[in-house]
Model the fold of this input.
Amino acid sequence: KTYPSMAKIHLGEDSKSLAVRIVAHFTRAIDSEVIQIVETTSEEHKEEKLLSIPALVTSEDGRKFVNYSPYSIIEHICKLTHFQKGFVGKSELQQSKILSYFEVIEKQDEKILAKALHNDLKLRTYLAGYNITAADIFAYAHIITYAKGLSKKDLSQHENLFRWIDQIQHSSGIQKFAVDHDLLIISADDLIDPASMEETKEAKPEKNNSKKDKKQQNKGNKQKNNPPAKKQGEVDYKAEPVTLVDFRVGHIVKVWPHPDSDYLYCCSIDIGEAEPRSIATGLQKVVPIEVIQDAMVIVAANLKAR
Done:
């Protein structure tokens, strides 16, 4: 199946081309054959008389038009696949915010960009709204190679950036692309080194023969044998760190009363995986079903099912 006026998008190996390529897969534009992706080398794009890459080439009434703006190219893809409203901005304010990210990201050094994104994401799940937008894809394409080269220590110091990258790379329509193109970054569980934890457990206190230290040691042994009762509200610092919990923003796509309970709702929640999660919530007596339908929620995605 071909289209006489199908747009051709010439892409290279740069970050801007990667962003366009991800959007083409995310919006299913390639599967629906509304655009044609042309992988172009530097020599080939000179032969095509293209000033830069990526480039969108369209024709109308025998005339050829070329657009080199990554934002305009992504916007064109979104229009063809009906992703425009949610992906490039639902309002003029959001569109302006997304466009400002495009302008800033291209000019920034990767190290500076990583720090800026980390700060921007302190109180946000995504850069320019409550859902993934073109700004997230564009930033992800420009930072992922740098992030993959960071050490575990560096990643732990950019936890907001890492959380956001993990959310993007596991989004529906992006995860398979990330795997196929070796873009996946390590999981949160890999940030903790089991060997270092074992060393901490096995570390023994140094011997000290002074009387004062012996008294303190004896006192400590008594406290160890007779631990004080835990006070109400006291935090157990031996518990697993909360950073290991894989929190995801989810969209409740369907909700219905539990057939065997007057207290539970059954919810089908999209958290960016191949299939929605089935999760029950005890809100039937508290929140009307129409309020829960289409709500955005936080899901702890890596807890054991009960």
Remarks:
- Residues 191-201 have pLDDT under 50 and may be disordered.
- The domain at 243-300 is CATH 2.40.50.140 (OB fold (Dihydrolipoamide Acetyltransferase, E2P)).
- The chain is about 40% helix and 15% strand.
- The radius of gyration is 26 Å.
